[in-house]
Fold this sequence. Notes:
This protein has about 290 residues and is mostly helical. The chain has helices at about 25-45, 45-70, 75-95, 105-125, 130-145, 145-150, 150-155, 160-185, 200-225, 225-255, 270-290; strands at about 190, 195-200.
Amino acid sequence: TQRGLMPNQVPGRAASVPKAGRNLPVAIGVGLALLAALAVGLLWAPWFFVLISAAALSLAVVEIHQALLRKDMHAQVRCIVAGTLISVLGAYAMFRWQLGLAPTTFAVICVGGTVLACLVARLLLQGPEGFIRDIAASALIIAYIPLMGIFIPLMMVESHGTRRIIVVVVCVVASDTGAYAVGSLLGRHKMAPRVSPSKTWEGFAGSIVTAAIIGAVAVVWCLGAPWWLGLILGLCIAPAATLGDLVESLIKRDVGIKDMSNFLPGHGGVMDRLDSMLAAVPVGWLVLHLSLGG
């Protein structure tokens, strides 16, 4: 394959395998395995969930790097993967074993250190040609993946952290489900036809209403908080999740691919599953942090 291309991808157009041609049994099997792993981590082993999150974010870094290579943008992917793993795992470790730094402080240090590491690596390993383009690629990936993903361990270390994660995940799932159901039945007005032709304003309204209703139930049941807090949470998470989906779709359309990778057989890439969640987690953390404290 050409440099920067994932297998079975042709420059300037989407991958050749149509969505309808996905292996359904494999997709179901992979989906159930992922669901089981997440359930184990959230319900019984928080450290395992953080480990899975760090691994998924690292794979997402590789996927975005591979996509940007199609535009001849060369990020310092090794530095970014290392920074992602250290920031996510280290922030949780600071809390769990009381290692002397607040998780938030450690996360900020790691993200800043990752930027500096990318600058140094690019400076030492290559010449001035394409420096701005390549550093822009590194900065994009850092801002998109580890900077957003660091809110996972930051939420985990707060009071009832795993329950907060569950509430946010439930709201994102409700948003996606509501958008699909209402959009399929009532969708008429395209939301962003050049980016995601299937998204409609009716579906977006359905995502907001569904996320708000499920959020109101989830915060009462999981956190013992007032129902109106869940309503606010759902109203904030639904637009964020939609934005995350649209941004990832825009990247794929710009570089000419259908799936970010084939890391998850039957599902595509890790980013194809994380897109909504990445944008929603920081919003969920902020709403719950401001309302319930740390």
